[in-house]
Amino acid sequence: MAAKIKKGDKVVVLTGKDKGKKGDVVAVFPKESKALVQGVNMVKRHEKPSQTTTGGIVTREAKVHLSNIAIEDPKTGKPTRVGFKTLDDGRKVRVAKASGEMIDG
User: Fold this and answer.
1) Phi and psi (nearest 5°) for 68?
2) Beta strands 34-37 and 92-96: pairing type?
3) pTM for the whole thing?
4) Is the pLDDT of residue 1 over 70?
């Protein structure tokens, strides 16, 4: 199945502690059905000191399930579902269901 959410997409969080927050997708993990979104789902981790880092308590992003995020509509900025459309030249592009606007291309 084609990927509805890709690296670099602008997404909106639908549920959880960060509901309503917007961010860019840093990485997608299709096998886990999760994505890493910049500035969303921040967690604190205790890190051991190593040669490169000093260690201590570090805040970083944790993965978010794909069902809890939606693509931001390019026209309105609200969350939208994603559909696919084949153009005249044969390219398959993602389309926002709410506005009909092309997401990539």
Assistant:
1) -95, 0
2) unpaired
3) 0.86
4) no
